[in-house]
């Protein structure tokens, strides 16, 4: 059966560009399935009209166009794409999707791309691909490709970029990985540079016992991605040893994962072992970007682009209360482990962020606040990166999963 690529975009303003891609993909022996996301009449007849996209969002396209409100139209049509695109995929209409655009075009199509399952090929050629792509990619696997020049006409640069993108999506769709990978129980783990020894030892312990471990870098998007995979039903156990994103969320750092971090496992009754890894720090960019209000804090220049800030006693109390709140959402199969001799690689005796008083406040707040009826507390007289702590956490998760 011929593989098909969906081409979605504003066929009213960029019809020539999209026809170029359509013909190119078809010349490779692939089918195309076109979705019009523009406000006005397209330059060629699409397989899915903008009227159908608007209807998916509960709106009337003619009434929407008459308002001449671009922001409103983008909002409505993007919601329509978010609902319609996964439905069309389930119907077998396409095997991968590609689009081109500026900020508007990117905002129109990426919500639909994000709603597709992980693994479905998704390519977005965009003028904003080299900037902050988090609003467009989210926790999905969209491939963002810089357009270099604006998506406005066919020229020596744009045609080369468009051709590369078309070949990329064609290759993704045509060449499937047929290697059979043994199905193993899937575990999600969180890691930061300063908790790497711990998570590496835990991962080795688990893999030696027949588990597959996905490690997420706790940089905001990493935590969000893990939560999304838990919600989607991929994960059977969670080793959430690095909850540092909550420090950034509460204090104002740059690596926050949003207000729903540490909820998915509890909500879905997934066994979880949680710890306080790297909560001794909040993250910023280069040193001169740290807000003035944090003057007086202790700082550590991790590298030229990353500055770490030591959390205070008061901040650790707030962090402890938030973790307590999230942990108490659990109904069962949840363990909190506290490494009493240090919660990161630089929070041990002799290192830059060693802070017994700060850590004590964090520990005491959690001890007092967690619901012992649903959260088991384990305290160990060692540092988080000690092998004994890592392996104890891994073994405890195995026990929870085997119950």
TrEMBL record:
This is Uncharacterized protein. It holds the Pfam family UPF0261. Gene3D superfamilies: Uncharacterised protein family UPF0261, NC domain, Uncharacterised protein family UPF0261, NN domain. CDD domains: Tm-1-like. Residues 3-177, 184-401 form the UPF0261 domain. It comes from the Bacteria. It comes from Paenibacillus selenitireducens.
